[in-house]
Amino acid sequence: MQHNWGDNSLSDKATAPAETEDSGSVSHGDQSVPAYSWYALSVLVLIYVLNFIDRQILSILANDIKADLGVDDAYLGFLYGTAFAIFYALFGIPLGKLADSWKRVRLMTLGLSLWSAMTALSGFAKDAGQLTVARIGVGVGEATASPSAYSLISDWFPVRLRATALAIYSSGLYIGGGISLAIGGMVVDRWNAAYPDGGPLGLAGWQAAFVAVGLPGLLLAIWVMTLREPIRGAIDGIPTPEDPHPFRGFVRELTTVIPGFTFFGAGSRGVAALLINIGALLVMLTVGHGLTLALGTGQGFIMEAIQGGLATQLPAISDQWLLLAIGYYAVFSWACALRVRDYPTFALTWGSPAFLCTILGYGAVAFVAYAASYWGAPYAERVFEVSKVSLGFWLGGGGALGGFLGVILGGRMADVLLAKSSAGRVWVVLFGLLSPLPFAYVQYTTESYPLFTALNIVVSGLAASALGAAAAASQALVLPRMRGTATATFFLATTLVGLALGPFTAGYVSTQNGDDLSAGVLSTLWIAPIGFALLIASIKLTPKASSTVVARAAAAGEAIEVKA
């Protein structure tokens, strides 16, 4: 019996193994992994390396940007975190849907081209507003990468190696983050030495660094275009036919997350749905207004532009809380629409306590990890007064080494523990949350630069161990056709909880304490008890949830049929 499960029809029983376009036949159990899968994975790693070079280079440039543009630590945390994260997360929703229905290789190619171009344009920013807009563009482009990559990897590698493969892909995060410090430090120091009063086109060293790391991505996009697309779900014995109208779902999802259009989407579901939607927006904006007043943060150029365009005075709300309010409202609107349009996917993601506890538990890991990784270079530059080149080598290289080893070993351990328990991967996430905490405390209180850099390796490695495990654990709780959407939802937690709040919290606390980045970074450790409670709940819930994925999706499909 078949059910109409949202946008695609799937049998509730796994079909026989099929062939992928590039790998030949596969069988369940000990499937062999063709060489092409490993080659394709290496290309995805390279993409992710560039992804995080373009994202993380802001860390080594932070102090120069602060001096040139006259901004504070709170803004720098906002720029790296919220301004990027909101658009990265929100566009990840429709782009995750597109990854579930269109050619994932093509999607990654377009996204890589966009974020590389916007990174290069960041180098021509003359004020905080222009730089913020450029970083928003980077966030939109980078939103294509992981939904596509996670889905491709899940179709290139069998379950027994999936966490390992996802961990290898995720190593690009740490390699790119480390390389970004080295490249940024070298470009800035050499550029400023050669052009102390500004170089060609009037660019300062930090601007030249953005251009230097942005342009190579346009060349890499040509290589990415040559990758072959695997048959979706074939390796799991659930081959899914191509969607004949892949962009319909994308456009639908896009309209559900754009404020304004969300009213039409909600209105199409009835007056009650529209009133709830409007109420949710008002609640979010009210909370943002209250946080602005309570924390004393300024309005910022975005809110000022809105007020200027409307020629009226609106309640005070800072860019930080305005974007977060819009972001959380948009996610609420999307989740409500998903519940109606594709209830099985909603049931296995937003309706699954195991899924939510897993991704939010990892969001707590990301909250601390993003703050520490971003502020590490500015902190060391201020406290230890070392050069950017030294920071790039010792801090960047050490962070890359620790992160690479941590994510690979963590992913492998997650696969080993999965053989012993269906919640084995979540235990690795819990380890990644708790184990770095004492080392991070010592790192941001020591007066020894060598000890700071050594602990950076340890903290990076321990925190990184959770990523591959969390990604694989969340993927195991949905059907193959839902992987792109599930990945986008997973990244909502890492971005709207971790990236959007962690770096800003550290920067804000630093600003309120006289630019004390030690106090800022350590202030993020308070989230650990919350993450602990979420992950313990996930460990208890995951075994049953993972063993009933097909049954729960079928039941959700039947519920739709009964209602109809």
In percent, how much strand structure appears in the residues?
under 5%
Our measurement of the CA-to-CA distance between the termini, rounded to an integer number of angstroms, reads 17 Å
Largest sheet: 2 strands, antiparallel
Instruction: Please identify the structural class as seen in this structure.
Output: mainly alpha
The strand count comes to 4
Shape verdict:
globular
How much is the radius of gyration in Å? 23 Å
The amount of helix comes to over 70%
- Spans with pLDDT under 50 lasting ≥5 residues? 1-29
How much is the average pLDDT?
A: 86
N-to-C series of helices and strands: EEEEHHHHHHHHHHHHHHHHHHHHHHH
Spatially, the strands of the biggest sheet line up as: 1-2
SS summary, helix count: 23
Please characterize this protein's 3D structure.
The protein is mainly α and 564 residues long. Helices cover 76% and strands 2% of the residues. It contains 23 helices and 4 strands. It has a two-stranded antiparallel sheet. It has a two-stranded antiparallel ribbon with strand order 3-4. Helix 10 (261-267) packs antiparallel against helix 11 and helix 15 runs antiparallel to helix 22. The longest helix is centred in the N-terminal third of the chain and has 36 residues, at 159-194. Mean pLDDT is 86; it is low at 1-29.
Furnish the topology, listing elements before pairings.
Layout (H helix, E strand, L loop, with lengths): L1 E4 L2 E4 L7 E2 L3 E2 L9 H35 L3 H8 L1 H20 L2 H19 L5 H15 L2 H12 L2 H36 L10 H20 L21 H12 L3 H7 L3 H25 L4 H11 L8 H23 L1 H6 L4 H31 L4 H31 L5 H11 L2 H7 L5 H27 L7 H30 L4 H6 L5 H20 L1 H15 L1
Antiparallel strand pairs: 1-2, 3-4
Helix pairs in contact: 1-4, 1-6, 1-7, 1-8, 1-15, 2-3, 2-20, 3-5, 3-9, 3-13, 3-20, 4-5, 4-6, 4-8, 6-7, 6-20, 7-8, 7-16, 7-19, 10-11, 11-13, 15-16, 15-17, 15-19, 15-20, 15-22, 16-17, 16-19, 17-19, 17-22, 18-19
